[in-house]
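We store sequence, tokenised fold; for instance:
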Amino acid sequence: MKHCPYCGNQLDDNAKFCNSCGNAQPEPQYTQPQYNQPQYAQPQQQAYANYNAAPANQSCWDGGVFDTIINSIVASLIISFTCGIATPWAICYMMRFVVEHAVIDGKRLSFDGTGGQLFGNWIKWFFLSIVTCGIYGFWVTPRLYQWICSHIHTK
């Protein structure tokens, strides 16, 4: 049995991801055993005390299951209570949660898009879909992804 170097949770020897924190597990490095040291040392507990700190050249997502469920429910309620009119705000709410919990190559990401910015595009895409009898709907998802990616930056 091995331990997760990020949260200390006990894992199967062939686990590629931690079932507690979700971090990818490093590939095992095989070295010649040292006879004056124990062969299996206890894992070093590593916590990101500083929200913006992460090991260099490492990528992870540090959001939790409970937070993800709560944020998904809130976004669904925003959409439901406004009959879909506030969908751009719900999308931005969820994207901000997802992106701001992501670390790529040791750099935390940020999302600066707003529902107001997305709403203008949303209306344009809606009317183009109506005018083209739904054909433009195939282009909405790629356009939405392009808009989201243009608002993701590193801190």
Notes: The mean pLDDT is 82.
